[in-house]
Amino acid sequence: MKQGHPLRSKILNFQNKLDRLCRDYALRVEDSINPMYFNSYTDQIGLRVMGDDFTSEVATLITQGIRESIQTTLDKLLKKTRYSLGESERLSLEAKIENQLRRKYVGKTLNERLNTSQRFTTSRLIQTYRLIQAGLNPSWSDTFFNSGQSVFFWNNRLLTTEMLRAYHYTVREFAKHTKAKEIEFIFDERQLKRRSEYRLLADGGPYKVENLPDYPRPYASYILEIIY
Fold first, then answer.
1. Is 212 within a domain?
2. Are 191 and 222 in contact (CB under 8 A)?
3. What are the phi and psi torsion angles at 223 (to 5°)?
4. Do the domain assignments include residue 42?
5. Do the Cβ atoms of 209 and 183 come closer than 8 Å?
6. What pLDDT is stored for residue 81 in this prediction?
7. Which side of the chain, N or C, has fewer Cβ within a 10 Å radius?
């Protein structure tokens, strides 16, 4: 995540919440599966239920993360610009932004991406179960944490992306609401060296507010500067 990002501490807080959730479920799965008494049918049903429950809690966490991202971004923008919003005006703006985040992004709505996450989580749990059945000794903790195909990695990417998208949309809608002229992407040098798409976004700006490009890619972190 970009150093100095307005949501940096907020996102780290939610990543820690996801970490604790994964650790809790790793222990719950371990307690629910007894290698001495395998029952493939009932065990796998239990793992599917566990995957559903886990994804439901992740969905709640993401919804909270989105709302707190919107609120935190608005607070910082209001402080920086010294603009004021009435209570009903602010609630209406927050609802508008949250509604936009429910629409399709990279071809899927948030609910559809959560469904993909649920299928991934369940498949990883069952894969580990089958390895244990085969006499191997994989760790349930590893299923949740180790490698780029872990349950934490997958869901952390989804959580962080949604919070960063919330930042992008909040800045854009605030700029529209306050009749700003332009918005500029701010990337650090390391980001500009690594990704050509970031260089294109930086070189193409500043943008008129109504022409601001959409959130460019999952996990993208940058600062948006409003120009009045």
1. no
2. yes
3. -110, 140
4. yes
5. yes
6. 95
7. C
pLDDT for residue 2 is more than 70: no
Whether residue 198 contacts residue 222, with contact meaning beta carbons closer than 8 Å, is answered with yes
Residue 209 near residue 184 (C-beta atoms within 8 A): no
Q: What does the pLDDT read at residue 3?
A: 58
Answer yes or no: are the C-beta atoms of 184 and 206 closer than 8 Å: yes
Q: How far apart are CA 49 and CA 32, in angstroms?
A: 12
Residue with tokens 């294109």: 200
Residue 228 lies in a domain: no
State residue 42's pLDDT score. 84
Count structural domains, the chain: 1
Beta bridge partners of 225: 184
Between 136 and 168, whose confidence is greater?
Answer: 168
The residues that bridge with 223 in the sheet, in sequence order, are 186
Q: Residues 48-63: what's their mean pLDDT?
A: 96
For residue 207, being part of any structural domain is answered with no
Residue 182 backbone phi and psi in degrees, to 5 = -145, 165
pLDDT tens, position by position, 14-43: 999 999 999 999 999 988 887 666 677 788
> CB-based contacts of 34: which residues, under 8 Å, 6+ apart?
none
Cβ atoms of 1 and 221 closer than 8 Å: yes
Residue 20 sits in which domain range?
Answer: 8-179
Q: How many CB atoms lie within 10 A of CB 12?
A: 12
